[in-house]
Amino acid sequence: MHSDDVLNLFRKMVEARRFEEKAAELYTQGHIRGFCHLYIGQEAVATGVLHNSLALDSVITSYRDHAHMLILGVGPKVIMAELCGKSTGCSNGKGGSMHMYNRQFNFYGGNGIVGAQVSIGTGLALAHKHKGDGGVALIFYGDGAANQGQVYESFNMAALWNLPAVYIVENNHYALGTSMPRAVAGNSLLNRGDPFGIPTISADGMDVFDVIEKSKEAIEYARDGRGPVILHMDTYRYRGHSMSDPGTYRPRSEVEQIKRERDPIMRMRNELIEAYGVALEELERIESEAEEIMEKAAQFAINSAEPEETDLGKDVILS
Amino acid sequence: MSDTTKMQVRLAIRDALAEEMRRDQAVFLMGEEVGLYKGAYKVSQGLLDEFGEQRVIDTPITEYGFAGIGVGAALAGLRPVVEFMTFNFAMQAIDHIVNSAAKTLYMSGGALHCPIVFRGPNGVPRGVAAQHSQCFASWYAHVPGLKVVAPYTSTETKGLLKAAIRDDNPVVFLEHEVLYGLEFGMHEDTELMPLDRAIIMREGIDVTITAFSISVMHALEVAEILHENHGISAEVINLISLRPIDKNTIVNSVKKTGRIVNIEEGWSSCGIGSEIISIVTDGAFDYLDAEPLRITSADVPMPYSKKLEDLALPNADAIVDRILRMCGRR
To answer: Of B132, B176, B187, B218, which residue is the catalytic one?
Structure first.
C-alpha cells in the first residue's frame, strides 16, 4: 500500500476517535442527551471495511453509527449537530445519535432496534440484485444482535436467493453488559453461517491491515455473485455500551490491557513509523488537525439553532 | 359510472398487482406461497408466470425477516408489496412495520422514505378460533407515518391497491378472507382511488352508520332492515381509510342525522369505534340526539364453537335492536 493511502487510513481512524471523544465531552456538558454509543476502540473495523467499498454499495449499521458515517465521508459538522439535536443536523435534529442517514453515500442508518438492520440490510442486497447494479450491501451488527432471530431469518433468505450481502459482525465481546460466554452458546460466532452454507471470514478487528485484506476478500466474494458472506471482526470497545453505562461488568485491567496491547491506532502509528518511515511529527500534525476539525464541528453544533416549532409536524408522511 | 362486469375481490387484487407490475419494474410481490402456490387464498394467480421468480418471491415462513427485507428494498428505491398470509402473523413483523417503515421518514428528517405496501387478510374468517380471528385495524391506525386502508368492494379494492402501490408512504392494506370470494360489479372507469376518503354507500337522515371492510356489508344489511321494517333512514359510510380517517364525511353526516353507530369486528376498547365517537364529539357534539353506539366483537378471544363465535360477533338483529333503542323506538 502506498504511504499516502496508509496515512489517509490513519487520518480516518484518528478522526473517528477524536469525534467520539468530542461527543463524550459534549454529552458530559449536557449538549447531547439520551443515548450516545461511542465507537472508540473499534475504529479499524469500519475504516478497513469501507476502504474496500464502492460508491454504489449500500451501508447500514446499528445505533453505534457515528464513525461509519464519518468514514464514508459525511462531514463531522452535520453529525455532531444531529447528536446535539440541532436543525443543522443530518436528520434536522429529529433522529439523534441512533437515527442518521445519508442518501448520497447510500448510508441507511443507524437503527435503534438491535438486529433490525440485518433484515433491512438484506433488503438492500435484494435491491442491488433486483437492479443488477453490481453493488453489495455492507451490513454491520454486533455480537449482541447476533443472537436475534431475524438475523438467521435473513441469513436463510440471503443464501436461498444468493444475495450480495456482506454481514460484518463487530464482535466487541459485550452485548451491553453481558459477556459472550453468558449470551452466546458455544462462545463463538464463527460457525453461525454454517447451517446456511454461508462462509465466515475472520479478521483481527483491531488491525486495520488485516481488516482490509479480509474484507476485500469478502466483498469480492459477494460482488462476484457467489452469495452472502460473514465477516467476523474480533474487536473491543473501550467505553461503556452507551454514555450512561459505567461498565462495571468487566475489570478495568482488561480494558487497559487491550488499550496497551491491541489499540488499532497505536498499532498503526507504530507501523507507519517503523515500516513506512513516516516522521512522528507528521502523525502528530494529523492528530492535532483532527482535534481542530472536531472542535470546529462541536462549535458548529453548539451554535446551531434548534429546530423550529413548526418542524414538529413535518416529515411524518409524504403528501 | 356503470356496472359492467362482476368480479371477485381476489381477482381485483390480482389485477391491481399485475397492472402495477407491468407499469413499474420496481414493483414486486413477496410473501409465503405467493408464487408457485398462487397465493394461500389464490390471490396471485398467474403472477409468477407473467413476472418470474425475481418479482414474485416465495419466502420461507419468516415474517419478521421478510418484512425487514421489504423495508430495506423500499428504502433502496423499489416498491415492494409484502403479503402476510394473514395479519395475525404480521404481529411477528410489527416491529418493522412500525419502527422501520413508519418512522424512517421522520427520523431521517425527510432524507429517506419507504414506499411499501403490507397487505393480506385481516379480521374474522370464521371457524378458525382465537389466534386466527382478530382485527388489527386500530393497532395500525394508531401509528403516525402509516396509511391504513380497509376496502370493501372489488372496485375499491383494485383502485385503492393501485394507489397504495404508487404511494410514497408505507401503506397497511387490510383485506378480508370472506370478501375474497364475493363478487361485486366493477366500475369500468375506476383507475386510482384516493387513500383518504370515505364513501357514502347509502344516504339517510335518521342515523349514521360507519363501518369498514366486511362490516360495511353488515351495515348495509342493517340499513335495509331499518328502512323496510321500521321506516328508519340510515346513512351508511364506508370508512375505507382508517388512517387518516375522513372526519369531514362523518361529521357532516352526523350533523344531518344526529346519531352515530360504528360497526366493527375488532374489540371495543381503544377500537376504531372509540375513535369515531371522539371525532363526532369533537366535530358535531351539539348535533347529537342520542349517545353514540359502538358495535364490536365481544371482549373475549374468539371462541371456536360456532354457537359461541356467533355470540361473539356483531349480528344484524342485535344491531337493529340497539339502533331502535337509540332512536327511541324500543
So the answer is: B132
Q: Does any CB of chain B come closer than 8 Å to the CB of residue A126?
A: yes
Cα separation, A293 vs A75, in Å, equals 10
What is d(CA B112, CA B74) in angstroms, rounded to the nearest whole number? 10
List the single residue in A with minimal CA-CA distance to B99. Answer: A113
Determine, yes or no, domain membership for A315. Answer: no
The confidence band for B190, taking pLDDT boundaries of 50, 70 and 90, is low
Helix B272-284 with B247-257: angle, nearest 10 deg: 60
Instruction: Give the pTM.
Output: 0.96
Size of interface A-B (CB pairs under 8 A): 145
Asked whether residue A319 is assigned to any structural domain, the reply reads: no
Domain coordinates of chain B in residue numbers? 3-187, 199-326
What is the CATH superfamily name and number for domain B3-187? Thiamin diphosphate (ThDP)-binding fold, Pyr/PP domains (3.40.50.970)
The CATH number linked to A270 is: 3.40.50.970
Residue A313 lies in a domain: no
Cα gap A53→A12, rounded to integer Å: 15
Task: Tell me the C-alpha distance between A23 and A16, whole Å.
Answer: 11
The string of pLDDT tens digits covering residues A269-298 is 999 999 999 999 999 999 999 999 999 999
For chain B, which residues lie within 8 Å of any Cβ of chain A, measuring from their own Cβ? 26, 28, 54, 57, 59-60, 62, 64-78, 80, 95-96, 99-100, 104-113, 144-145, 147, 168-169
Interface test with A, best of B61, B63, B69, B148 (most A CBs within 10 A): B69
Of the candidates A122, A161, A315, the beta carbon closest to that of B109 is on A315
Q: What is the pLDDT of residues B57-111, one digit of tens each?
A: 999 999 999 999 999 999 999 999 999 999 999 999 999 999 999 999 999 999 9
Is residue A318 one of the residues assigned to a domain?
no
Q: What's the domain range around A258? A: 3-306
φ, ψ (nearest 5 deg) of residue A289? -65, -45
A71: closest CA among A107, A108, A99?
A107
Are the CB atoms for A13 and A51 separated by under 8 Å?
A: no
Residue B183's CB: how many other CB atoms inside 10 A? 14
CATH class of residue range B199-326: alpha beta
How many structural domains comprise chain A? 1
Whether chain B has a CB inside 8 Å of the CB on A23: the answer is no
